[in-house]
Amino acid sequence: MFLKTTSSQIKKFSTLLNECDHTLSEWYFNKETTMALASINIEQYVKVAANANLLPKRDFYLSYDAEADIAYINFHNPARAADDSELTDDDVIIRYDKDEEIIGLTILHASKR
Known about the structure:
By secondary structure, the chain is an alpha+beta fold. It has helices spanning 2-19, 42-51; strands at residues 22-29, 34-40, 61-65, 70-74, 84-87, 92-96, 102-108. 25% of the residues lie in helices and 36% in strands. Strand 5 and strand 6 form a beta hairpin.
């Protein structure tokens, strides 16, 4: 039951994360300083933050590997090593510690959700 109720929440959160447009502009140089102009769609990050309270575990640490298209969610900082894991039908790896506590999630194909 836990996995079915959180699966849709994970998908929604993953979709919002994917919508975040995080791109850097070109580097601009002048004689006195070197400066980079960053362009971030802040509104999409606000949407992600606003939906974080829908998740059952509210303290989590998120990273996204764009090259592999994988989102990593850890419920501990620093992340704990998994003693066991389970792959769900919707390509989410649930990571467990030795006490069978869920310590994190790995969301495969995150941008396609």
